[in-house]
Design a protein that fits this description.
eight-stranded antiparallel beta barrel; 9 strands; about 20% helix
């Protein structure tokens, strides 16, 4: 009888630790002040450090909308070029602290959250640089399918200063599949 309770308690502690642990790399700083209302809507992924859940995806987008409970619905889509089919992942995000600081945590799998931190954004909320919880996750986003060269250079500099190796970025194709 003690073993199942011990395992359940251990699982709860581990889940709690991971859902509340630091959500931003040490060298990165979340945007503040941040206007979450202006951030909502559709974003095109311009570049990313590739990882398991986005492998082989092009035409990737993320759409953010406010839910009634105050959390943010995250709707990610992409075209898998190997499987020749669309893939979608729907999750939720919430602010780690104040909603005026662009430090969030996002979940696609129940109680498990990962960091989502806007570390650079232009005044019009047209281009964004997003850091994950570690240097293994980075995205450049745009409201359009392209990004101006000067914004690209600026965001690559910010990412490098935060500790990212920008040579690891995969530049996403948007070829009209949407």
């Amino acid at each position: 009888m003690k073993k199942p309770i011990y395992l359940l308690l251990t699982f709860g502690l581990v889940a709690g630790f991971f859902s509340c642990s630091s959500t931003i790399p040490m060298g990165a700083v979340a945007v503040s002040p941040f206007d979450s209302e202006k951030y909502l809507g559709k974003w095109y992924e311009i570049a990313r450090i590739d990882f398991k859940f986005e492998e082989d995806l092009n035409n990737t987008t993320a759409e953010y909308s406010l839910k009634e409970d105050g959390t943010i619905k995250v709707d990610n889509k992409g075209y898998n070029v190997k499987k020749r089919e669309w893939e979608q992942a729907v999750g939720k995000a919430k602010f780690v602290g104040s909603d005026s600081v662009a430090m969030l945590k996002v979940s696609f799998f129940g109680p498990f959250y990962s960091g989502y931190n806007v570390i650079a954004i232009d005044d019009n909320y047209t281009y964004a640089l997003v850091a994950g919880e570690s240097l293994d996750y980075l995205w450049i986003l745009s409201r359009e399918k392209t990004i101006p060269e000067d914004v690209k250079v600026k965001y690559l500099k910010v990412a490098t200063e935060a500790g990212y190796d920008t040579n690891d970025l995969l530049w996403v194709e948007h070829d009209g599949q949407q």
